[in-house]
């Protein structure tokens, strides 16, 4: 158990540092669209997809390495990657209603949570 925790922690540190470094890229952005965050979320979704489907297709990685890559690096980089993978898995297993409900609830509740936090801190 401790080795799993350390694997996730190390991967999370790496993911968080990568996210920070990408956030330092100077972009001229007059539109106000959060391009860096958008790219981080899409890239994290792509990476967790590569990891998840590579494990299924080729020689399986050790469970600890999967934790390091998926929960650690991708989780530290962005939790949006896990959200994307879980949404895909729900859709691909035919649970369309649950997938849509999960996606909408995550989006709406996430925004509401930020609004509540903003009001609480005011």
Structure description:
This protein has 122 residues and is mainly alpha-helical. It has one domain (2-94). Helices cover 81% and strands 0% of the residues. The chain contains five helices and no strands. It has helices at 2-23, 35-57, 63-77, 80-92, 96-121. The longest helix is centred in the last third of the chain and has 26 residues, at 96-121. The protein is globular and about 50 Å long.
Question: Which descriptors apply to this entry?
Answer:
122 residues, 5 helices, globular
Query: Helical content, roughly?
Result: over 70%
Amino-to-carboxy terminus distance: 41 Å
* Coarse shape: globular
Instruction: Supply the number of helical segments.
Output: 5
Largest sheet: none
Radius of gyration, Cα only, in angstroms? Answer: 17 Å
Structural class designation = mainly alpha
Total strand segments: 0
List the helices and strands and how they pair.
Blueprint: H1 2-23, H2 35-57, H3 63-77, H4 80-92, H5 96-121
Helix pairs in contact: 1-3, 2-3, 2-4, 4-5
Summarize this, please?
This protein is mainly α and 122 residues long. The protein has helices at residues 2-23, 35-57, 63-77, 80-92, 96-121.
